[in-house]
Amino acid sequence: MTILSKIDLNCLTMFDAVVESGGFTAAADRLGIAKAKVSIQISRLERQLGAPLFTRTTRQVSLTDAGRSLHSECQPLLRGIQDALSRIGNEEGKLIGRLRITTTVSHAMQSLAPAIAKFASLHPTLEIDLRTEDRVVDLVSEGIDLSIRLGWLKNSSQRATKLGEFEQYIVAAPQYLQKVSQPKKPEDLAAFDWIALTLLPTPNTWQFTSRSNESRTVHVKARIRVDSPGALRSLVNSGAGVSALEQYNAQADLDAGRLVRLLPQWSLPRGGIFAVLPPGRHVSAKVRAFIDFYRDFLKRQ
User: Which of 78, 127, 219, 229 is deepest in the core (most CB within 10 A)?
Assistant: First the structure.
C-alpha cells in the first residue's frame, strides 16, 4: 500500500481549512471541532508525506514550499468534490458552500457589492467571501473561485468570460479647472497636471478617437502616480490634477458636480469587465450562477 493511499481525505480538508483561515484556531472554529484535533491531523499528514507543511511561530502560521505546492494541487480537487457532493445531495438545486470572489476596491464599492447583496438574498444557503485587492491575485494559491477584472487582460490563455464593457472619461474637479483653461483638443492635456494609474500598461499614453473617427495619440507627463483606482479618484476629486476614470468609478461624482468631464467629443478605448476563473476544467454551479447573474446585473445598470 502506498503512502498516498493511506492519507485520509479529512486531513486534506483540515489542511485546506488551516490555509484558508490563516491558523489552527480559526480553522477549528470554521470546522466546528477542537483545535487539538486539527493539530493532530495536520501532524499526521506531515508524517505521512515526510515534509513539514507549515512553519509555526507563536504569532502566525505560514506555508512551507511543500505546503504551497500541496495546496495549489489539492484545493481545486477538493472544491470539485465538494461541488459534486452538493449537486448530488441537494435535489432542490440550492446553491450551498462558499463562493470566493475578488475584485478591485473601487469596483466592489460601485457595482459588485450591490450585486452580491442581491445574489445573497436569492441564495440564503450560500456563503460569499468578497476579497478586495487592487493587485492581480493568484487565484489558485489564494483559493479564489472567481475574479472580476476590469480593463484589458494581458494573458490571452486565461479562462475568462466577458461580462460587459465600460467607457473611460477624462475628468477634473471644478476647483482645478478654476486655475486652468479647459482643454479644447486631446493634445492640450500634455500641459496639464496628469495623475497616472500605474496599474495600466501605458499610463502616460492615450489614444483618442473623435466622433468623425479621427485618431490622436497623446503623451502626458504625470506629476503624481498612484496604484489604486480608489486613490486616483480621491486625488482627482481633491483638485490634484486631471486623469482618466472608468465610468463606474466616475459617474456618481459627475452626477453630483464634484467632477467635470473633459473633451466629451473625444472617446478613449472601451475596457472590458471579465469573469476570470482559476485553471482547470470544472466550473461549479455557484460560479456559473453568479456569472450569469452579474452579467444581467451589469446590463441593467
Answer: 229
Domain covering 3-70 assigned CATH 1.10.287.70 in the classification: no
pLDDT at residue 245 tops 90: yes
DSSP calls for 75-91: HHHHHHHHHHHHHHH-T
**Most confident listed range (105-114, 173-182, 292-301):** 173-182
C-alpha cell recorded at residue 187: 493634445
Percent above pLDDT 90 for the chain: 46
Count of C-beta atoms within a 10 Å radius of residue 160: 16
Which phi and psi angles does 209 have, rounded to 5°? Answer: -130, 130
Query: Mind listing the pLDDT tens digit for each residue in 104-115?
Result: 888 898 899 999
What are the grid coordinates assigned to 285, written together? 454551479
The 3-state DSSP class for residue 290 equals helix
Query: Given a cut of 60, is residue 238 above it in pLDDT?
Result: yes
> Where in the chain is CATH 3.40.190.290?
168-269
Beta bridge partners of 266: 210
88-103 burial, b if ≥16 CB within 10 A, otherwise e?
Answer: eeeeeeebbbebbbbb
Please say whether the beta carbons of 248 and 114 come within 8 A: no
- Give the number of C-alpha atoms closer than 13 A to the C-alpha of residue 178, restricted to the C-beta side: 6
Give the largest CA-CA distance in the chain.
79
DSSP 3-state percent helix, strand, coil across the chain (nearest 5): 45, 25, 30
Burial class (CB in 10 A: 0-12, 13-18, 19+), 78: middle
Residue 41 and residue 16: Cα distance in Å, rounded?
12
CATH number of 168-269: 3.40.190.290
According to CATH, the topology of domain 90-161+272-300 is: D-Maltodextrin-Binding Protein; domain 2 (3.40.190)
pLDDT bucket at 86, cuts 50 / 70 / 90 = low
pLDDT tens digits for range 21-51: 778 887 887 677 888 898 898 998 888 888 9
